[in-house]
Design goal:
Strand order of the largest sheet: 1-2
Shape: elongated
Number of strands: 6
Order of helices and strands: HEHHEHEHHHEHHHHHHHEEH
Oligomer: single chain
Distance between the termini: 87 Å
Strand content: 5-15%
Structural class: mainly alpha
Mean pLDDT: 90
Length: 356
């Protein structure tokens, strides 16, 4: 009797071990092939589960074709849709099957354009020209279309007659929200592109509508100052503090003294070259380094992030008039120009000075 009990116990242990081994082996085989999350474009043709398994195996997205088919049969998820997918080796069978079962509306003609924070209208026009069937001139011509601008003023609460000032280089500078946008194909019009960007700006600004209305600055002025903070504060971890410096300068009848406005005034990017003394002192409608220029530029100089807009709506109150950020984005605020120069010298000596 004891022998039978021992044999039964041994069989139970052996069976349990076998079940554990099979389950572990199965889980391993349907798990991710690797940790690589790089997306691969894979075309799943119409056909049976075996055909799909072969395609996935050929692209190194599954470990074993048989185990893939077993998983599909066990889960009953056999309605896998033909299409073009973006899949990666770190997904595993479960995730891949979920994606194939859901299907998608893959469009091979789809156009994706990323407009980054801090870029100006010249770069926007360039990106549109590079990615669509529109030219840069198409962009600039639309920006000069009075009828179109009037339509926008009537459609969006944050767009006012300020954009029609003849001194402005590009009417919608600073009003198009930075983000990645997807369009059906290269035939998308500039109007359609701008509509998406303006709709996104509307979504981003609407929660702050009351703050805009309560500000001493107009919406146009807030977006203008936000664009300066975007470029000047890009190397800083304290945009609210940077905004506070500019408010102090405006309230003290000082020039903003911002290099980024000087570059914009002569239609150059800071990465292109250093400015000449004549260019630094050129008193146009944007150059806040000009000694007689004691206000904001006539328009924004780039598209700002919501963080920079928030900083202008909620600036830090302090009594500083200068700032400099180091390589680690730590910002140092000072009250006088002499203190500012000393701080710059100190950062240079310590190898911490940030240079564009």
């Amino acid at each position: 009797m004891r022998i039978f009990r021992n044999m039964a116990l041994a069989m139970l242990i052996l069976t349990s071990a076998l079940i554990i081994f099979v389950c572990s082996y199965f889980n391993y085989q349907i798990g991710p092939v690797s940790k690589n999350n790089t997306l691969k474009t894979v075309v799943i043709e119409k056909g049976g589960i075996s055909d799909i398994a072969n395609t996935l195996k050929e692209n190194n997205l599954i470990r074993d074709e048989t185990m893939f088919k077993v998983y599909v049969k066990l889960t009953g998820k056999t309605n896998l849709k033909a299409s073009t997918y973006e899949l990666s080796e770190n997904m595993g069978v479960k995730k891949i099957v979920e994606i194939l079962e859901s299907g998608n509306d893959y469009n091979p003609d789809e156009v994706k354009i990323t407009f980054k924070e801090g870029i100006n209208m010249r770069k926007i026009a360039s990106l549109i020209s590079e990615n669509t069937n529109n030219s840069e001139e198409d962009v600039y011509n639309l920006l000069k279309d009075d009828e179109y601008l009037d339509e926008l003023i009537a459609s969006y609460w944050f767009i006012t007659d300020d954009i029609k000032n003849s001194k402005i280089y590009y009417s919608l500078e600073g009003y198009l929200y930075p983000d990645t946008y997807i369009f059906m194909n290269k035939d998308v019009s500039v109007k359609e592109i701008f509509k998406k960007m303006l709709d996104e700006m509307n979504d981003k600004l609407t929660p702050y509508k009351e703050k805009f209305n309560n500000s001493d600055l107009s919406i146009h002025e807030i977006l203008t100052l936000s664009s300066i903070v975007e470029l000047e504060g890009a190397s800083s971890s304290d945009r609210n503090g940077v905004a506070g410096v500019f408010y102090n300068r405006l309230n003290s009848d000082m020039t903003l003294g911002s290099d980024v406005t000087t570059y914009y005034g002569i239609k150059l990017d800071m990465s292109e070259r250093d400015l000449t003394k004549a260019e630094l002192n050129d008193c146009n409608n944007y150059n806040t380094r000009c000694s007689t220029f004691k206000s904001l530029p006539v328009s924004p100089i780039c598209i700002a992030s919501i963080e920079s807009i928030e900083a202008v709506l909620e600036p830090t109150e302090h009594d500083y008039y200068y700032f400099v950020a180091d390589k680690n984005k730590k910002t140092y605020f000072t009250k006088t120009y002499e203190e500012h120069l000393d701080m710059v010298s100190k950062l240079k000596e310590e190898g911490l000075f940030f240079e564009y």
